């Protein structure tokens, strides 16, 4: 339990049991006051506590159901109360001051509108001289002193200590604590003021299950709570509608609590308790001021209001301190972010810009190490897990659909295999930089081993006993060594990495837009060039054929009249025209390769290889060529006519460049690799220098002289164009004098759907 009180009934599974308990409708109140509830515009009596004093009512409660307010009260307060009750706000209690019975007995009246639509009036008898002791004049000096001391405090801990002392001074409780909630709703006692009658809880932690979600919700809606005597007997609330739903007491000051909680208080040795909620500006709980007394103790409503005011002053001061600290940290991290953006702007690739400033990259999140995963690469900075583990973390994040910032101080609790590298990455802060690929920025923090002091063993929240639910009985400090956790990430650090992600995404999007624009322009230019190439190639075929034809006619008709030099010139003309014709045909074929549609049908690559080998047999007469053709996959999908040209070009090249070998060896094979097939054609021929490998697949690129090996330099360009249109890749490896290997891949599923 918390140092304050927890209005819920624990179960063997505390969280589940508490979550089910309807603590806002207990059906009873505490006996130090009385409750009446009215409904409708006429304020007819609908509910009343069983002990409503006869001095306040004109008759027995049973005779007053449905009667309007002015017919219920004895004496003169009815008109005043009716006037006040008609003007209640929608939420929260409103003090109505003192009212007196016909006998002159003084009562403090408080009213509110219940969530189920009733007007609820609660009255508490004023004891002795309390009416004078709890006036504004009596309480003002203590509140003013608290205001001044809070204004001079320089830290959250000092603020909390001032508030604890001020509240204890107003209420006279034996002990006042300030209890702060952590992000996971564990609570820590950050300040304490006491007279020594009760044990100290300063610095102790209490588990989140001590105050379940619905209890925290009530603390947010109703900031004051008093239990004057844990030994009280609950007073039932009677209703005009027998068997109807119980009255909602969310805003009630007298709401009864679970008998188990009362036993819990007795186990703590605190028969009386009071709490005041500390709320953030958005209405969420920051913590509680929790007071305890070694004997039963009543606190007048005015004093509770003064404590509520002190709590609000503390909340404002704490919020201001936290916001100032957050703003200072954000300003510092904005400077770091600005330096990183400058590095990225100075380089063409954002990854290069990030890793160019490793200290800034880790400083942005206060991390010991960082990793950048983008475009298939992984760059590590500082203290990180190995690259294989970093990639595994990225895959885990991608599987879990992380789209914004992800943070944890205990990665091993979410990803058990992370325990082996907890010394580098117990804490993880990550942001995705692509929704299409597993690209992330990751920051890591190492394990920080620490000892946590709990207010009792948090593992023993409740025990079953004969089917009954029982609270824990021990609140002695219990120490726990916490492992596999890092220091927590601050809100400023999380915001900083989110801002960096936004900047990177904008950079990537801008680059993608520029590439798309450039690609569009290139496609238009390539289309124009292809059309020009096709037109020129087509138009040049006839002139070159005419030159060759007329040169042959001239040789036949006038050859005997020509000199030896003339006949030699005529041979040069014929050879040049034939070479130019072959070049034009190759260009025309290359141009058509990009313009023709792509078939997507089943074919057998082994059949294509066999057809190409048969077609080459006439040119191999007199040569010794050893063919090593491995088994290949069965049916594949693609354009068999185009792929036949691929094998034709590669096999003819292999045969051509092994011409100088006494025995040529040509090997053809295919192996599956992931979602593609990898083909290779290997020979033991002339080979090439890898320094020039990038030229091989370009148009008109040759690595050997024309005198050594004939050709026009378009065959391999055709290979690459056909393979890429099928969604594959082409590359080569070789060594001078030791042969070459040409590779190309084809997707298992066939060409992409957008292939033309």
From TrEMBL:
PROSITE patterns: HIS_KIN, PHYTOCHROME_2
Catalyzed chemical reaction(s): ATP + protein L-histidine = ADP + protein N-phospho-L-histidine
EC nos: 2.7.13.3
Ranges where the Histidine kinase domain occurs: 535-750
Annotated organism of origin: Paracraurococcus lichenis
Domain Phytochrome chromophore attachment site, residue spans: 155-312
Family: In the N-terminal section; belongs to the phytochrome family.
EC class of the enzyme, as a word: transferase
Alphabetical list of PANTHER family matching this protein: BACTERIOPHYTOCHROME (PTHR42878:SF15), TWO-COMPONENT HISTIDINE KINASE (PTHR42878)
Keyword field: ATP-binding, Chromophore, Kinase, Nucleotide-binding, Photoreceptor protein, Receptor, Sensory transduction, Transferase
The name this protein goes by in its record: histidine kinase
Domain of life according to the entry: Bacteria
Recorded GO MF terms: ATP binding
């Amino acid at each position: 339990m918390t140092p304050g009180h927890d209005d819920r009934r624990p179960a063997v599974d505390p969280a589940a049991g508490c979550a089910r308990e309807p603590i806002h409708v207990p059906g009873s109140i505490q006996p130090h006051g009385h409750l009446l509830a009215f409904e409708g515009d006429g304020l007819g009596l609908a509910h009343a506590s069983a002990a409503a004093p006869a001095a306040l009512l004109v008759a027995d409660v049973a005779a007053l159901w449905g009667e309007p307010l002015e017919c219920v009260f004895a004496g003169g307060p009815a008109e005043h109360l009716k006037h006040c009750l008609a003007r209640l706000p929608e939420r929260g209690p409103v003090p109505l001051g003192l009212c007196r019975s016909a006998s002159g007995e003084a009562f403090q009246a408080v009213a509110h509108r219940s969530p189920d639509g009733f007007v609820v009036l609660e009255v508490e008898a004023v004891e002795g001289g309390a009416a004078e002791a709890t006036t504004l004049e009596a309480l003002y000096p203590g509140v003013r002193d608290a205001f001044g001391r809070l204004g001079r405090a320089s830290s959250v801990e000092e603020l909390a200590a001032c508030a604890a002392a001020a509240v204890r001074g107003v209420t006279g409780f034996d002990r006042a604590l300030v209890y702060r909630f952590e992000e996971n709703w564990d609570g820590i006692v950050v300040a304490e003021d006491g007279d020594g009658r009760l044990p100290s809880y300063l610095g102790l932690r209490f588990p989140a299950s001590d105050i379940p979600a619905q209890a925290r919700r009530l603390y947010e809606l109703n900031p004051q709570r008093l239990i004057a005597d844990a030994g009280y007997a609950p007073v039932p609330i009677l209703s005009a509608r027998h068997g109807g739903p119980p009255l909602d007491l969310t805003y009630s000051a007298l709401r009864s609590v679970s008998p188990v909680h009362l036993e819990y208080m007795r186990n703590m040795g605190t028969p009386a308790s009071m709490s005041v909620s500390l709320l953030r500006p958005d209405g969420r709980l920051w913590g509680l001021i929790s007071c305890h007394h070694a004997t039963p103790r009543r606190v007048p409503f005015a004093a509770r209001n003064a404590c509520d005011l002190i709590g609000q002053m503390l909340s404002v001061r704490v919020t201001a301190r936290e916001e100032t600290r957050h703003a200072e940290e954000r300003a510092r991290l904005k400077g770091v972010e600005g330096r990183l953006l400058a590095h990225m702007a100075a380089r063409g690739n954002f990854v290069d810009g990030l890793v160019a400033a490793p200290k800034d990259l880790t400083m942005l999140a206060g991390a010991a190490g960082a990793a950048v995963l983008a475009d298939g690469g992984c760059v590590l900075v500082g203290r990180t897990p190995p690259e294989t583990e970093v990639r595994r973390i990225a895959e885990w994040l991608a599987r879990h659909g992380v789209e914004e910032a992800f943070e944890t101080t205990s990665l091993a609790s979410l990803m058990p295999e992370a325990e082996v590298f907890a010394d580098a990455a117990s804490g993880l802060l990550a942001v995705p930089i692509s929704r299409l690929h597993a690209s992330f920025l990751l920051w890591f923090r190492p394990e920080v081993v620490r000892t946590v002091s709990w207010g009792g063993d948090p593992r023993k929240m409740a025990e079953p006993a004969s089917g009954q639910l029982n609270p824990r009985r021990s609140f002695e400090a219990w120490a726990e060594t916490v492992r596999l956790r890092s220091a927590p990430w601050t809100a400023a650090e999380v915001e900083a990495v989110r801002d960096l992600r936004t900047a990177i995404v904008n950079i990537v999007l801008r680059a993608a837009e520029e590439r798309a624009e450039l690609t569009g322009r290139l496609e238009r230019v390539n289309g124009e060039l292809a059309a020009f190439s096709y037109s020129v190639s087509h138009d040049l075929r006839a002139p070159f054929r005419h030159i060759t034809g007329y040169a042959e006619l001239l040789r036949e008709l006038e050859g005997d009249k020509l000199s030896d030099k003339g006949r030699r010139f005529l041979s040069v003309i014929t050879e040049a025209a034939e070479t130019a014709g072959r070049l034009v045909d190759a260009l025309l074929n290359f141009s058509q390769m990009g313009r023709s549609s792509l078939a997507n049908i089943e074919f057998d690559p082994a059949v294509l290889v066999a057809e190409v080998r048969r077609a080459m047999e006439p040119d191999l007469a007199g040569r010794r060529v050893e063919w090593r053709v491995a088994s290949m996959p069965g049916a594949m999908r693609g354009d068999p006519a185009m792929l036949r040209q691929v094998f034709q070009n590669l096999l003819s090249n292999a045969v051509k460049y092994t011409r100088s070998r006494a025995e040529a060896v040509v090997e053809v094979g295919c192996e599956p690799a992931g979602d593609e097939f990898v083909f290779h054609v290997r020979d033991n021929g002339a080979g090439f220098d890898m320094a020039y490998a990038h030229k091989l697949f370009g148009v008109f690129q040759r690595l050997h002289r024309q005198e050594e090996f004939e050709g026009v330099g378009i065959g391999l360009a055709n290979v690459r164009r056909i393979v890429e249109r099928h969604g594959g890749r082409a590359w080569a490896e070789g060594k001078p004098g030791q042969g070459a290997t040409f590779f190309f891949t084809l997707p298992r599923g066939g060409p992409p759907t957008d292939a033309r």
